[in-house]
Every structure is written in structure tokens, then in C-alpha cells.
């Protein structure tokens, strides 16, 4: 459920113009002359996002209890996501790589249309650790990115910029899949990526609301969304180099993303902003077998899924 964000399209146009004037480095935001009414992102029903989590849980249960790199559960996860995207009209590509002697897979989905010289990407890692199903880490990001992509298709959104979605393999082995993807881009294709948005752990049970402190325009887009629904955010400080935005950042691509916290404990000051439990980890089941569909805070997943959609629509319009 999303509170209204009054005047946000006008605010976004003003923000885009201000950012262009001040930083000159807008990642995919509409040019200053953009129409007043940038396309408004639809709400992503959290039930639809959670339905994908249920599928990921079932996949893990049917494949040795996990969705880890090199295991059957990971490839079954790729097959599930790919089938949904193919049916929705995306152009999908499965990129193979090897890590630890085992075959890994990235899944890339392009939405036909838009300026392919200005590509907005949203991505998440699809693999879990071997100890469990990896529902918050990172079924949450993968399900939200999938539901946003399916909503693009369902609404036949035709953005100015080209949209590309990605699900990475072997993140838990050291950002292997995303690094392989970036390293295998030609310099021309790398330059065409206006921004990469990363979503890794966005439904933590004792959630914080963290925004990556990287590209200013992307950061502001996320902050504007949360301000519009009256939710305080903090800058993500533990994330540098710790998820799939890192290879893009190293290659000079503007990046941003959202995070609800892992094994660090929530402070009393943060509880005053967000509720929850002080002195307890944001996610007590981080990298554990208890990272199941019970390890999700629905409100956090809902808010971050809608923030993801808002940013994709705003930065590609
Ligand atoms: N490396 C991620 C979890 C993680 C830890 N800190 C951050 C900061 C920002 C994004 C993700 C993370 C993993 O275990 O998949
Ligand atoms: Zn992890
Ligand atoms: Zn993760």
C-alpha cells in the first residue's frame, strides 16, 4: 500500500533540472526540458512480490535446500525468472561463466524500445548461500526487480531510455557474475549504461531504510520517494564493494541502490525512526538456514519495491 506522493511528477522534473544544473551528472534522469508529468510509476502489490519469494522457497526445498551457485536450485531459480520474462515479451539472454569449477549464469532481460544509447539497469543477485533458501538475501531484491520488470510489460511502459534488468549469479562468491558481465562489456556498451540500480536485501525482518551514497541523482531519486511517503532514510555505509553495484561503479557507471540491513545491530536511535528492536541485527538470519519466507518484513519489502519502481520510471522517462 502506498501513500500518495503529491506533486511528485512536478517535483521530479524540478529535481532533475536542479541536479542537471548543479552536478551535470544525471544518471538517466529526464533532461531539464522534460514534460512536467514524468510517467508515474505504478504501485507494486507486495503480494505479487511475495509470490515470487514463495516460488524461490519451493525451488530451494525441491533442490537440496538452497539456491547457491553451481547447485540445481540456482539454475531452477534462473529458469523460473526467465520463463516469466519471456512470457511477458522481454528479450532475455543467459550469460554463462565459471566460478570454482562450476557453471554460473547471469540472466539479462531487455525491454524492447527506448534509446539504447541511454540504458537504465536494475539488478539483484539471484544466488543464495549454501546454508539456506536465501529469501531475504537475496530473494527479496530478485523478486522486486522481477515484479518491476513484469509491471513494465503489463503496463506497456514505453520509456525514453532503454530498460534492462539483470539477475546475477555467484554474488556470494565475490560479485563473480556481475563482475563477469561488466568485464565483458565493450567500452561502447559500457558507456551506454546511464545508471545501475542495485537491490540486495530489501526485506530484512528488523529493517532499516538505507540508500546507497553514490551517484547524487540516483540517491536523490530514492530519497525523494521515501520523503514522499514520510519514511526517514540513512546513507548506506557498510556497502562499499559489498554487492553487485561495485563492478559497475569501478567501471565508471553511475550507481545507486537500497538496503534494509544484514548482521549489524539496529541502534536505539534507529528504532525511534523505524521501530523494531534495538540491539538486534537487522537480519538475524543473514546467511543462515532460517532465511526463509518467514524472514521478511512485508512493510519494508513493499516500500522498497515501490521505491524501486519509482526510480526505474523516473530515471528512464
Ligand atoms: N554482501 C551482501 C550483503 C551486504 C552486506 N552489506 C551490504 C551493503 C549493501 C548491500 C548488500 C550488503 C550479501 O551477503 O549478499
Ligand atoms: Zn549474502
Ligand atoms: Zn546479498
Automatic annotation (TrEMBL):
One matching Pfam family: Peptidase_M28
GO CC, one annotated term: extracellular region
Subcellular location: Secreted
Needed co-factor(s): Zn(2+)
Signal peptide stretch: 1-29
InterPro entries for the chain: M28_fam, M28_SGAP-like, Peptidase_M28
Superkingdom, taxonomy of origin: Bacteria
Name of protein: M20/M25/M40 family metallo-hydrolase
Source species taxonomy: Bacteria, Bacillati, Actinomycetota, Actinomycetes, Kitasatosporales
Amino acid at each position: 500500500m502506498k501513500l500518495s506522493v503529491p506533486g511528485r511528477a512536478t517535483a521530479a522534473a524540478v529535481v532533475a533540472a536542479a541536479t542537471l544544473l548543479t552536478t551535470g551528472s544525471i544518471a538517466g534522469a529526464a533532461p531539464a526540458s522534460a514534460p512536467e508529468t514524468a510517467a508515474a510509476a505504478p504501485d507494486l502489490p507486495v503480494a505479487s512480490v511475495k509470490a515470487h519469494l514463495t516460488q524461490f522457497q519451493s525451488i530451494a526445498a525441491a533442490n537440496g535446500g538452497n539456491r547457491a551457485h553451481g547447485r540445481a536450485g540456482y539454475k531452477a531459480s534462473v529458469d523460473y525468472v526467465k520463463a516469466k520474462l519471456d512470457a511477458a515479451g522481454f528479450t532475455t539472454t543467459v550469460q554463462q561463466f565459471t566460478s570454482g569449477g562450476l557453471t554460473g549464469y547471469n540472466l539479462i532481460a531487455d525491454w524492447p524500445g527506448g534509446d539504447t544509447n541511454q540504458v537504465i539497469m536494475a539488478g539483484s543477485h539471484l544466488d543464495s548461500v549454501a546454508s539456506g533458501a536465501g529469501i531475504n538475501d537475496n530473494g527479496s531484491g530478485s523478486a522486486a526487480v522481477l515484479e518491476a520488470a513484469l509491471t513494465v510489460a503489463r503496463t506497456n511502459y514505453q520509456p525514453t531510455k532503454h530498460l534492462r534488468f539483470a539477475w546475477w549469479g555467484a554474488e556470494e562468491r565475490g560479485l563473480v557474475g556481475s563482475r563477469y558481465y561488466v568485464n565483458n562489456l565493450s567500452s561502447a556498451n559500457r558507456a551506454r549504461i546511464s545508471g545501475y540500480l542495485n537491490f540486495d536485501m530489501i526485506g530484512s525482518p528488523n529493517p532499516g531504510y538505507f540508500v546507497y551514497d553514490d551517484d547524487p541523482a540516483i540517491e536523490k531519486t530514492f530519497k525523494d520517494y521515501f520523503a514522499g511517503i514520510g519514511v526517514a532514510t540513512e546513507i548506506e555505509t557498510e556497502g562499499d564493494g559489498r554487492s553487485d553495484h561495485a563492478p559497475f561503479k569501478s567501471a565508471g557507471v553511475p550507481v545507486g541502490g537500497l538496503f534494509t540491513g544484514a548482521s549489524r545491530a539496529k541502534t536505539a536511535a534507529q528504532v525511534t525512526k523505524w521501530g523494531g528492536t534495538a540491539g538486534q541485527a537487522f537480519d538475524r538470519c543473514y546467511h543462515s538456514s532460517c532465511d526463509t519466507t518467514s524472514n521478511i518484513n512485508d512493510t519494508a519489502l513493499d516500500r522498497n519495491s515501490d521505491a524501486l519502481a519509482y526510480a526505474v520510471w523516473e530515471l528512464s522517462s
